[in-house]
Amino acid sequence: MTPTADLLITNGTVITMDADGRIIKNGAVAVSGETIAAVGASADMQALPAGEIVDAAGGIIMPGLVNSHTHAAMTLFRGLADDLPLMSWLNDHIFPAEALLDEAMVHAGALLACAEMILSGTTCFCDMYLFEDAVARAAKIAGMRAVVGEVLYDFPSPNYGPIEKGFAYTRRLIDTWKNDPLVTAAVEPHSPYLCAPDLLREAADIARTHRVPLVIHLSETESEVATIREKYGATPVRHLADLGVLDANLLACHCVVLSERDMDLLQQHDVKVAHNPESNMKLASGISPVPDLIKRGVCTGLGTDGCSSNNNLDLFSEMDTAAKLHKASRLDPTVMDAATVLRMATIDGARALGLDSVTGSLETGKRADIIVIDTRKPHLTPMYHPISHLVYAVGGSDVATAVVNGRVLMKDRRLLHLDLEKIMADARQIAAAIRSP
Ligand SMILES: [Zn+2]
Protein backbone atom coordinates (compact mmCIF):
# COMPACT_ATOMS: atom_id res chain seq x y z
CA MET A 1 0.00 0.00 0.00
CA THR A 2 1.38 3.42 -0.95
CA PRO A 3 1.30 5.76 2.02
CA THR A 4 -0.44 9.07 1.46
CA ALA A 5 -0.33 12.35 3.32
CA ASP A 6 -3.01 14.96 3.80
CA LEU A 7 -0.30 17.53 4.36
CA LEU A 8 3.38 17.54 3.43
CA ILE A 9 5.70 20.21 4.84
CA THR A 10 8.88 20.04 2.86
CA ASN A 11 12.16 21.73 1.94
CA GLY A 12 13.32 22.84 5.39
CA THR A 13 15.68 21.99 8.22
CA VAL A 14 13.64 19.76 10.52
CA ILE A 15 14.35 20.25 14.24
CA THR A 16 12.66 17.16 15.67
CA MET A 17 13.28 17.72 19.44
CA ASP A 18 13.12 13.93 19.79
CA ALA A 19 15.17 12.08 22.43
CA ASP A 20 18.22 12.03 20.13
CA GLY A 21 17.88 15.70 19.19
CA ARG A 22 17.75 14.71 15.54
CA ILE A 23 18.08 17.54 13.00
CA ILE A 24 17.35 16.74 9.34
CA LYS A 25 18.71 19.06 6.68
CA ASN A 26 16.53 19.22 3.54
CA GLY A 27 13.86 17.48 5.55
CA ALA A 28 10.11 17.06 5.45
CA VAL A 29 7.21 16.10 7.69
CA ALA A 30 4.18 14.22 6.41
CA VAL A 31 0.86 14.51 8.18
CA SER A 32 -2.05 12.12 7.92
CA GLY A 33 -5.24 13.34 9.55
CA GLU A 34 -4.32 14.61 13.02
CA THR A 35 -1.07 12.69 13.19
CA ILE A 36 2.55 12.87 12.03
CA ALA A 37 2.90 10.05 9.50
CA ALA A 38 6.59 10.43 8.68
CA VAL A 39 9.64 12.61 9.43
CA GLY A 40 12.61 12.34 7.09
CA ALA A 41 14.53 13.63 4.10
CA SER A 42 12.58 15.71 1.56
CA ALA A 43 13.99 13.53 -1.23
CA ASP A 44 12.47 10.39 0.33
CA MET A 45 9.04 11.95 0.62
CA GLN A 46 8.79 13.78 -2.69
CA ALA A 47 6.94 10.90 -4.32
CA LEU A 48 4.41 10.76 -1.51
CA PRO A 49 0.96 11.70 -2.81
CA ALA A 50 -0.07 14.65 -0.64
CA GLY A 51 -3.28 16.64 -0.38
CA GLU A 52 -1.64 19.91 0.55
CA ILE A 53 2.01 20.89 0.27
CA VAL A 54 3.70 23.59 2.35
CA ASP A 55 7.10 24.67 1.02
CA ALA A 56 9.29 25.73 3.95
CA ALA A 57 11.56 27.50 1.42
CA GLY A 58 14.78 26.47 3.13
CA GLY A 59 13.51 27.60 6.55
CA ILE A 60 13.04 25.69 9.79
CA ILE A 61 10.34 23.05 10.43
CA MET A 62 9.88 22.41 14.14
CA PRO A 63 7.36 21.49 16.82
CA GLY A 64 4.93 24.25 17.81
CA LEU A 65 5.92 25.98 21.05
CA VAL A 66 4.32 25.16 24.39
CA ASN A 67 3.46 28.06 26.72
CA SER A 68 3.43 26.32 30.09
CA HIS A 69 1.91 29.18 32.09
CA THR A 70 -0.34 32.03 31.05
CA HIS A 71 -3.56 33.87 31.79
CA ALA A 72 -4.74 34.29 28.20
CA ALA A 73 -7.58 36.76 28.71
CA MET A 74 -5.21 39.23 30.38
CA THR A 75 -4.42 40.42 26.87
CA LEU A 76 -7.29 42.81 27.68
CA PHE A 77 -5.09 44.47 30.34
CA ARG A 78 -1.89 44.74 28.33
CA GLY A 79 -0.26 48.08 29.13
CA LEU A 80 -3.07 49.13 31.47
CA ALA A 81 -0.61 49.60 34.33
CA ASP A 82 3.16 49.12 34.33
CA ASP A 83 6.20 49.95 36.42
CA LEU A 84 4.42 49.70 39.76
CA PRO A 85 5.13 47.77 42.96
CA LEU A 86 3.39 44.37 42.85
CA MET A 87 0.75 45.12 45.50
CA SER A 88 -0.23 48.49 44.05
CA TRP A 89 -0.27 47.01 40.54
CA LEU A 90 -2.56 44.20 41.71
CA ASN A 91 -4.81 46.02 44.19
CA ASP A 92 -5.18 49.38 42.43
CA HIS A 93 -5.25 48.27 38.79
CA ILE A 94 -5.55 44.55 37.98
CA PHE A 95 -8.09 43.41 40.62
CA PRO A 96 -10.47 46.38 39.95
CA ALA A 97 -10.27 45.67 36.21
CA GLU A 98 -10.86 41.94 36.79
CA ALA A 99 -13.93 42.73 38.89
CA LEU A 100 -15.54 44.05 35.67
CA LEU A 101 -14.96 40.84 33.75
CA ASP A 102 -17.69 38.50 32.58
CA GLU A 103 -17.64 35.31 30.56
CA ALA A 104 -18.00 37.08 27.19
CA MET A 105 -15.06 39.38 27.97
CA VAL A 106 -12.83 36.46 28.97
CA HIS A 107 -13.81 34.70 25.75
CA ALA A 108 -12.89 37.79 23.71
CA GLY A 109 -9.58 38.23 25.55
CA ALA A 110 -8.71 34.56 25.15
CA LEU A 111 -9.47 34.67 21.40
CA LEU A 112 -7.14 37.66 21.09
CA ALA A 113 -4.48 35.69 22.97
CA CYS A 114 -4.95 32.67 20.70
CA ALA A 115 -4.49 34.87 17.63
CA GLU A 116 -1.31 36.34 19.10
CA MET A 117 0.01 32.91 20.11
CA ILE A 118 -0.60 31.29 16.72
CA LEU A 119 1.00 34.28 14.99
CA SER A 120 4.12 33.83 17.16
CA GLY A 121 4.41 30.04 16.87
CA THR A 122 2.75 28.79 20.05
CA THR A 123 0.46 25.83 19.44
CA CYS A 124 -0.28 24.74 23.03
CA PHE A 125 -0.84 26.73 26.22
CA CYS A 126 -1.63 26.11 29.87
CA ASP A 127 -4.12 28.64 31.22
CA MET A 128 -5.34 29.72 34.65
CA TYR A 129 -8.16 32.24 34.92
CA LEU A 130 -11.79 33.03 35.67
CA PHE A 131 -14.61 31.71 33.45
CA GLU A 132 -12.19 29.10 32.14
CA ASP A 133 -14.80 27.26 30.11
CA ALA A 134 -14.84 30.37 27.89
CA VAL A 135 -11.07 30.01 27.43
CA ALA A 136 -11.53 26.35 26.48
CA ARG A 137 -14.13 27.35 23.89
CA ALA A 138 -11.87 30.10 22.52
CA ALA A 139 -8.98 27.62 22.18
CA LYS A 140 -11.31 25.23 20.38
CA ILE A 141 -12.49 27.92 17.96
CA ALA A 142 -8.87 28.96 17.35
CA GLY A 143 -7.88 25.31 16.87
CA MET A 144 -5.19 25.45 19.57
CA ARG A 145 -4.19 22.80 22.09
CA ALA A 146 -4.84 23.95 25.66
CA VAL A 147 -4.80 22.92 29.30
CA VAL A 148 -7.42 24.99 31.12
CA GLY A 149 -8.18 25.39 34.80
CA GLU A 150 -10.51 27.62 36.79
CA VAL A 151 -8.58 29.65 39.35
CA LEU A 152 -9.54 28.58 42.88
CA TYR A 153 -9.02 30.66 46.05
CA ASP A 154 -10.48 31.23 49.50
CA PHE A 155 -12.54 34.33 48.70
CA PRO A 156 -15.68 34.36 46.51
CA SER A 157 -14.98 34.28 42.77
CA PRO A 158 -16.75 36.60 40.28
CA ASN A 159 -17.47 33.43 38.32
CA TYR A 160 -18.56 30.67 40.68
CA GLY A 161 -19.01 32.40 44.07
CA PRO A 162 -17.95 30.28 47.09
CA ILE A 163 -15.21 27.66 46.82
CA GLU A 164 -17.59 24.65 46.99
CA LYS A 165 -19.01 25.88 43.70
CA GLY A 166 -15.47 26.33 42.42
CA PHE A 167 -14.80 22.63 42.97
CA ALA A 168 -18.10 21.80 41.25
CA TYR A 169 -17.18 24.09 38.32
CA THR A 170 -13.77 22.38 38.09
CA ARG A 171 -15.34 18.89 38.08
CA ARG A 172 -17.75 20.02 35.37
CA LEU A 173 -14.86 21.43 33.33
CA ILE A 174 -13.00 18.12 33.59
CA ASP A 175 -16.11 16.21 32.58
CA THR A 176 -17.01 18.51 29.67
CA TRP A 177 -13.57 18.34 28.05
CA LYS A 178 -12.40 14.84 28.98
CA ASN A 179 -12.56 13.35 25.48
CA ASP A 180 -11.63 16.45 23.53
CA PRO A 181 -8.73 16.10 21.08
CA LEU A 182 -7.42 19.62 21.87
CA VAL A 183 -8.52 20.72 25.34
CA THR A 184 -7.64 19.13 28.69
CA ALA A 185 -8.91 20.47 31.99
CA ALA A 186 -6.71 20.90 35.06
CA VAL A 187 -7.27 21.76 38.73
CA GLU A 188 -5.76 25.17 39.50
CA PRO A 189 -5.61 26.54 43.03
CA HIS A 190 -4.08 30.03 42.79
CA SER A 191 -1.28 29.83 45.37
CA PRO A 192 -0.46 28.78 48.94
CA TYR A 193 -1.11 32.37 50.09
CA LEU A 194 -4.63 32.63 48.61
CA CYS A 195 -5.65 29.02 49.29
CA ALA A 196 -6.22 27.47 52.73
CA PRO A 197 -4.79 23.99 53.45
CA ASP A 198 -8.22 22.35 53.05
CA LEU A 199 -8.65 23.92 49.61
CA LEU A 200 -5.21 22.71 48.51
CA ARG A 201 -5.85 19.15 49.77
CA GLU A 202 -9.23 18.98 48.04
CA ALA A 203 -7.77 20.38 44.79
CA ALA A 204 -4.97 17.78 44.83
CA ASP A 205 -7.52 15.08 45.53
CA ILE A 206 -9.68 16.06 42.53
CA ALA A 207 -6.61 16.18 40.27
CA ARG A 208 -5.47 12.71 41.38
CA THR A 209 -8.93 11.18 41.09
CA HIS A 210 -9.40 12.47 37.55
CA ARG A 211 -5.73 12.07 36.54
CA VAL A 212 -5.40 15.67 35.38
CA PRO A 213 -2.65 18.21 36.10
CA LEU A 214 -2.65 20.30 39.28
CA VAL A 215 -1.36 23.81 38.54
CA ILE A 216 -0.37 26.44 41.14
CA HIS A 217 1.68 29.62 41.54
CA LEU A 218 4.47 28.68 43.96
CA SER A 219 7.23 30.62 45.72
CA GLU A 220 6.89 33.57 43.35
CA THR A 221 8.18 36.30 45.70
CA GLU A 222 10.08 36.84 48.95
CA SER A 223 6.91 38.26 50.49
CA GLU A 224 5.00 35.04 49.70
CA VAL A 225 7.70 33.02 51.44
CA ALA A 226 7.55 35.35 54.48
CA THR A 227 3.74 35.10 54.62
CA ILE A 228 3.67 31.31 54.44
CA ARG A 229 6.49 31.01 56.95
CA GLU A 230 4.61 33.24 59.37
CA LYS A 231 1.33 31.34 58.91
CA TYR A 232 2.55 27.76 58.71
CA GLY A 233 6.18 27.83 59.85
CA ALA A 234 7.46 26.45 56.55
CA THR A 235 8.53 27.53 53.09
CA PRO A 236 5.72 27.37 50.47
CA VAL A 237 7.27 24.21 48.95
CA ARG A 238 7.65 22.53 52.37
CA HIS A 239 4.08 23.60 53.21
CA LEU A 240 2.76 21.81 50.10
CA ALA A 241 4.91 18.78 50.91
CA ASP A 242 3.40 18.67 54.43
CA LEU A 243 -0.10 18.79 52.89
CA GLY A 244 0.72 15.89 50.57
CA VAL A 245 0.25 18.07 47.50
CA LEU A 246 3.69 17.64 45.91
CA ASP A 247 3.35 15.09 43.14
CA ALA A 248 4.43 14.27 39.59
CA ASN A 249 1.21 15.79 38.23
CA LEU A 250 1.87 19.13 39.96
CA LEU A 251 2.97 22.05 37.78
CA ALA A 252 4.49 24.74 39.99
CA CYS A 253 4.63 28.12 38.25
CA HIS A 254 7.45 30.60 38.98
CA CYS A 255 9.47 28.91 41.79
CA VAL A 256 11.60 32.05 42.09
CA VAL A 257 12.51 31.85 45.77
CA LEU A 258 13.74 28.34 46.55
CA SER A 259 16.05 26.93 49.22
CA GLU A 260 18.26 23.91 48.57
CA ARG A 261 15.80 21.85 50.62
CA ASP A 262 12.90 23.16 48.49
CA MET A 263 14.72 22.06 45.35
CA ASP A 264 15.34 18.63 46.92
CA LEU A 265 11.61 18.31 47.58
CA LEU A 266 10.64 19.33 44.04
CA GLN A 267 13.14 16.81 42.69
CA GLN A 268 12.07 13.96 45.01
CA HIS A 269 8.40 14.37 44.13
CA ASP A 270 9.04 14.84 40.40
CA VAL A 271 7.20 18.18 40.48
CA LYS A 272 7.18 20.08 37.16
CA VAL A 273 8.09 23.77 37.01
CA ALA A 274 7.01 26.61 34.69
CA HIS A 275 9.67 29.31 34.36
CA ASN A 276 8.42 32.83 33.51
CA PRO A 277 11.53 35.00 33.33
CA GLU A 278 10.03 38.13 31.72
CA SER A 279 7.15 38.34 34.20
CA ASN A 280 9.56 37.76 37.11
CA MET A 281 11.76 40.57 35.77
CA LYS A 282 8.92 43.01 35.12
CA LEU A 283 7.33 42.50 38.53
CA ALA A 284 10.80 42.51 40.13
CA SER A 285 10.11 39.14 41.74
CA GLY A 286 13.65 37.91 41.22
CA ILE A 287 15.41 35.15 39.30
CA SER A 288 14.37 31.52 39.57
CA PRO A 289 17.31 29.12 40.09
CA VAL A 290 16.35 27.26 36.92
CA PRO A 291 19.88 26.06 36.03
CA ASP A 292 20.02 24.29 39.41
CA LEU A 293 16.57 22.76 38.92
CA ILE A 294 17.52 21.47 35.48
CA LYS A 295 20.81 20.09 36.84
CA ARG A 296 18.72 18.11 39.34
CA GLY A 297 16.56 16.77 36.54
CA VAL A 298 13.45 18.79 37.44
CA CYS A 299 11.33 19.05 34.27
CA THR A 300 11.02 22.77 33.54
CA GLY A 301 8.85 24.41 30.90
CA LEU A 302 8.73 28.01 29.76
CA GLY A 303 5.78 30.39 30.16
CA THR A 304 4.96 34.01 29.46
CA ASP A 305 2.56 34.47 32.40
CA GLY A 306 -0.28 36.93 31.69
CA CYS A 307 0.04 39.79 29.24
CA SER A 308 -0.10 42.50 31.89
CA SER A 309 3.20 41.38 33.40
CA ASN A 310 5.22 40.59 30.27
CA ASN A 311 3.64 42.29 28.05
CA ASN A 312 3.42 39.77 25.19
CA LEU A 313 2.83 36.08 24.55
CA ASP A 314 5.84 35.63 22.28
CA LEU A 315 7.77 32.54 23.42
CA PHE A 316 10.66 33.31 21.06
CA SER A 317 11.29 36.49 23.03
CA GLU A 318 10.87 34.50 26.26
CA MET A 319 13.48 31.96 25.13
CA ASP A 320 15.95 34.74 24.36
CA THR A 321 15.37 36.24 27.81
CA ALA A 322 15.61 32.88 29.60
CA ALA A 323 18.91 32.11 27.92
CA LYS A 324 20.46 35.49 28.73
CA LEU A 325 19.05 36.26 32.19
CA HIS A 326 20.77 33.32 33.90
CA LYS A 327 24.08 33.99 32.15
CA ALA A 328 24.04 37.57 33.43
CA SER A 329 22.96 36.69 36.96
CA ARG A 330 25.59 33.93 37.32
CA LEU A 331 28.32 35.61 35.29
CA ASP A 332 28.56 32.36 33.36
CA PRO A 333 27.82 32.25 29.60
CA THR A 334 27.65 28.43 29.62
CA VAL A 335 24.47 28.16 31.72
CA MET A 336 21.12 27.81 29.93
CA ASP A 337 22.53 27.03 26.51
CA ALA A 338 20.25 27.42 23.50
CA ALA A 339 19.40 23.72 23.19
CA THR A 340 18.29 23.55 26.84
CA VAL A 341 16.07 26.60 26.45
CA LEU A 342 14.54 25.26 23.23
CA ARG A 343 13.67 22.01 25.03
CA MET A 344 11.92 24.03 27.75
CA ALA A 345 9.73 25.73 25.14
CA THR A 346 8.90 22.45 23.36
CA ILE A 347 9.23 18.89 24.65
CA ASP A 348 9.91 19.72 28.32
CA GLY A 349 6.96 22.12 28.34
CA ALA A 350 4.80 19.35 26.90
CA ARG A 351 6.07 16.93 29.58
CA ALA A 352 5.32 19.51 32.28
CA LEU A 353 1.69 19.50 31.10
CA GLY A 354 1.50 15.70 30.85
CA LEU A 355 1.25 16.01 27.05
CA ASP A 356 4.65 14.67 25.96
CA SER A 357 3.12 11.66 24.26
CA VAL A 358 0.96 14.05 22.22
CA THR A 359 3.00 17.14 21.34
CA GLY A 360 6.36 18.91 21.84
CA SER A 361 8.41 17.03 19.25
CA LEU A 362 8.16 15.90 15.63
CA GLU A 363 7.91 12.11 15.79
CA THR A 364 5.84 9.60 13.88
CA GLY A 365 2.58 8.90 15.68
CA LYS A 366 2.47 12.15 17.62
CA ARG A 367 -0.16 14.81 16.91
CA ALA A 368 0.87 17.18 14.13
CA ASP A 369 1.63 20.42 16.00
CA ILE A 370 4.17 22.03 13.69
CA ILE A 371 5.48 25.47 12.84
CA VAL A 372 7.60 26.73 9.97
CA ILE A 373 10.07 29.61 10.37
CA ASP A 374 10.79 31.77 7.33
CA THR A 375 14.55 32.37 7.48
CA ARG A 376 14.75 34.49 4.33
CA LYS A 377 15.36 37.59 6.46
CA PRO A 378 18.41 39.82 7.00
CA HIS A 379 18.45 39.09 10.74
CA LEU A 380 18.46 35.33 10.07
CA THR A 381 21.17 35.35 7.40
CA PRO A 382 23.46 33.41 7.31
CA MET A 383 22.48 30.43 9.45
CA TYR A 384 25.29 28.33 10.94
CA HIS A 385 23.26 26.72 13.72
CA PRO A 386 19.45 26.69 13.49
CA ILE A 387 19.02 26.19 17.27
CA SER A 388 21.11 29.29 17.96
CA HIS A 389 18.88 31.28 15.61
CA LEU A 390 15.69 29.94 17.22
CA VAL A 391 16.73 31.15 20.67
CA TYR A 392 18.81 34.26 19.93
CA ALA A 393 17.64 35.67 16.59
CA VAL A 394 14.15 34.48 15.55
CA GLY A 395 11.15 36.55 16.64
CA GLY A 396 7.53 35.45 16.75
CA SER A 397 6.81 37.36 13.54
CA ASP A 398 9.20 35.07 11.63
CA VAL A 399 6.77 32.17 12.00
CA ALA A 400 5.17 31.69 8.58
CA THR A 401 3.01 28.59 9.07
CA ALA A 402 1.35 26.98 12.07
CA VAL A 403 -0.36 23.59 12.20
CA VAL A 404 -2.18 22.14 15.21
CA ASN A 405 -3.57 18.61 15.31
CA GLY A 406 -3.02 18.34 11.57
CA ARG A 407 -4.99 21.49 10.74
CA VAL A 408 -3.26 24.48 9.15
CA LEU A 409 -4.14 27.49 11.34
CA MET A 410 -1.80 29.99 9.71
CA LYS A 411 -0.23 30.05 6.28
CA ASP A 412 2.16 32.74 5.02
CA ARG A 413 1.32 34.68 8.22
CA ARG A 414 -2.41 34.72 7.44
CA LEU A 415 -4.76 33.29 10.08
CA LEU A 416 -7.08 30.97 8.18
CA HIS A 417 -9.85 30.40 10.73
CA LEU A 418 -9.98 33.54 12.90
CA ASP A 419 -11.49 36.93 12.02
CA LEU A 420 -8.60 39.00 13.35
CA GLU A 421 -10.20 42.40 12.61
CA LYS A 422 -13.30 41.49 14.61
CA ILE A 423 -11.26 40.01 17.47
CA MET A 424 -9.25 43.24 17.76
CA ALA A 425 -12.35 45.44 17.48
CA ASP A 426 -14.02 43.48 20.32
CA ALA A 427 -10.92 43.89 22.49
CA ARG A 428 -10.83 47.66 21.87
CA GLN A 429 -14.47 47.92 22.86
CA ILE A 430 -13.88 46.05 26.11
CA ALA A 431 -10.81 48.20 26.83
CA ALA A 432 -12.95 51.35 26.54
CA ALA A 433 -15.28 49.99 29.24
CA ILE A 434 -12.34 49.04 31.48
CA ARG A 435 -10.81 52.49 31.19
CA SER A 436 -14.04 54.33 32.06
CA PRO A 437 -15.89 52.17 34.61
ZN1 LIG B 1 0.55 33.53 36.67
Question: Could you name the key traits of this structure?
Answer:
437 residues, alpha/beta, nine-stranded mixed beta sheet, 16 helices, 23% strand, binds zinc ion
Could you explain how this protein is built, in words?
The chain has 16 helices and 18 strands. The model has no long low-confidence stretch (mean pLDDT 96). With 437 residues, the protein is α/β, with parallel strands linked by helices. Zinc ion binds at residues 69, 71, 217, 253, 305-306.
Cα Rg: 21 Å
Structural class: alpha/beta
Query: Residue-averaged pLDDT, rounded?
Result: 96
End-to-end CA span: 65 Å
Q: What is the makeup of the main sheet?
A: 9 strands, mixed
Q: Give the overall shape.
A: globular
**What small ligands are held by the chains?**
zinc ion
- Number of separate helices: 16
Quick take:
The protein has 437 residues and is an alpha/beta fold. Helices cover 38% and strands 23% of the residues.
Layout of SSEs?
Elements: E1 5-15, E2 23-32, E3 35-41, H1 42-45, E4 50-55, E5 60-63, E6 65-70, H2 86-99, H3 103-119, E7 122-129, H4 132-142, E8 145-152, H5 163-177, E9 183-185, E10 188-189, H6 197-210, E11 214-218, H7 222-232, H8 236-242, E12 250-254, H9 260-268, E13 272-275, H10 277-282, H11 290-295, E14 300-302, H12 315-330, H13 338-344, H14 347-352, E15 370-373, H15 386-392, E16 399-404, E17 407-411, E18 414-415, H16 420-435
Parallel strand pairs: 1-4, 1-5, 6-7, 7-8, 8-9, 8-10, 11-12, 12-13, 13-14
Antiparallel strand pairs: 1-2, 2-3, 5-15, 15-16, 16-17, 17-18
Helix pairs in contact: 3-4, 3-16, 5-6, 13-15
